[in-house]
Amino acid sequence: MKKLLTTLALAPMLLAGxxxxxxxxxxxxxxxxxxxxxxxxxAHEAAAKCLESGKGHDQCQKDLQTACKNLAIGKYCGMKHAx
Length: 83
Hints:
mainly alpha
């Protein structure tokens, strides 16, 4: 019974926190996110074309890192996959 009461007491606080978070992400932030995602997609498309052209993996990876500097978290432009 205590767990139920605790859950019912915390639910409004969690809802208020979620609502505040949703309101903090305004139109300007959303537009900036869209622009970053498009820039990351363009950088990854360029990396794919680099590999298709026959340049080495290391060179294409280096180009990707340069294109993504200050754009995404980590040295793989926000993405890393297995090889």
